[in-house]
Amino acid sequence: MTDVGRTCWTEAELLADTPGLEPLVVGGRRCHGGFDADGRYRSPRTLGRVPAIRAWQAAHRRDFGTELLDVPPETWPPPYPNLTQSRYLLEEGVRAPIITTLTRIGTVEGFGAMIRAVAVPDRQRFFAEPIAGTALEHLDRGLFEAHARDEAGWGERAGHREMWFAVRDAAFENPPSEDETAEMLRRMGIGSGGPAPDLQAPVRQVQESRRFEDLDLGLEMMIQRMIDILLIEISAHHIFAWAEALLSDTDLVAGDGEPARVVGYIRQDEEPHVEYLRTALTEMRDRTFLTDSGGRRPGTEVIGTLWEHGLARSLGDRRRLQQRAALAEVEHALEGHPRRRDILVRFHALADDGPPGGAGRPEAAGPDGEASR
To answer: Cα–Cα distance between 15 and 11 in angstroms, integer?
Structure first.
């Protein structure tokens, strides 16, 4: 199954687990992945997937002579609140914003299963060059499905959604109820606990922001979604570092370091997601797109344009919205607190670049000590 250089794989092979692993159990729940005889954690569904990705990458470099799409994690600033701010909140006994952040991360991870919905069949019809033996060919032959199962779980085995919730519950011991979880997510603009996600929303978003009217709509939507997910995965480098550092501090959180270790397992699981997405996007970048009208567009134009659009959203509006939502949670947690103003002043002073959008700046505090909104 793991022949070096092999580029054609079945879906079953790409979904296969390493046999004989000791189960990973977190918070009493059987999770995916497990431990080998040497005690090393092995991510789920990587027995064939990892060597397949390596083979596709090597074949592309050999056949096209180009390197893979990449964005260094340093492109993104640290998360908000940053590690120092988060530690300060916990030192002051203000735990709710951190609990909310972990809940949001787990909920968004669960939405990752929606990647199944964007697969476009018979992709060869969109490219002048053959796509046989590529990651692009295998997107709906195991790659999207493995990604979806990693994020949302499969069968009796929990995925990243439940693993993040288990991390939260172990670190803070008194997890929020379902009603409290639904309310905090509602405040942050996430629909969990309310109506089901609108599956047509991505279609409408792509229609409103199309860059190539002469390309198949489904294809452009798939590419945009792949780029968005890849950029989220890369930017999550800082989230993992933040969570592992914060949750390993046994003076601030419970769990004897286990929550941080579980975050490390999730981080390892995400590595194949980054690699297959940037591989397939690179394969498209270096090919020629066939348009609906019978014309041609260079892949560098299509992928380059959509990539820059996605990167601008990730570093711009999306980040600003997340920052404002996170700050609102801090302010919500401090409502009625006798030291609200002093804590906010110190909290903002510890930020990397000041409060998002100027909201909640200490100088905006009113005469009664309440920060203006």
So the answer is: 6
Asked if the model's pLDDT at residue 196 lies above 80, the reply is no
- The Cα 353–Cα 89 span in angstroms is 18
Q: What is d(CA 117, CA 171) in angstroms, rounded to the nearest whole number?
A: 34
Backbone angles phi, psi at 286, to 5 degrees: -95, 15
How far apart CA 181 and CA 171 sit, in angstroms, is 16
Environment class of 93 (CB within 10 Å of its CB; exposed 0-12, middle 13-18, buried 19+): exposed
Separation of alpha carbons 275 and 53, rounded Å: 7
pLDDT at 296: 97
What residue numbers bound the domain in which 167 lies? 11-67+77-358
- pLDDT, mean over the chain: 89
> Over the range 143-153, which residues count as b (16 or more CB within 10 Å of their CB) and which as e?
bbbbbbbbbbb
Residue 370 lies in a domain: no
Identify whether 1 is part of a domain.
no
Query: Six-digit token pair at 134?
Result: 């590529």
266 CB-contact burial (10 Å; exposed 0-12 / middle 13-18 / buried 19+): buried
Among 248, 262, 198, 218, smallest CA distance to 86 is for 248
Is residue 226 a part of any domain in this protein? yes
Output the pTM of the full model. 0.88
**Residue 157 backbone phi and psi in degrees, to 5:** -100, 125
Give a yes or no: residue 28 inside a domain: yes
Q: Which residue has the tokens 């492109």?
A: 75
Domains identified in the chain, total number: 1
Quick count: other Cβ atoms within 10 Å of Cβ 66?
12
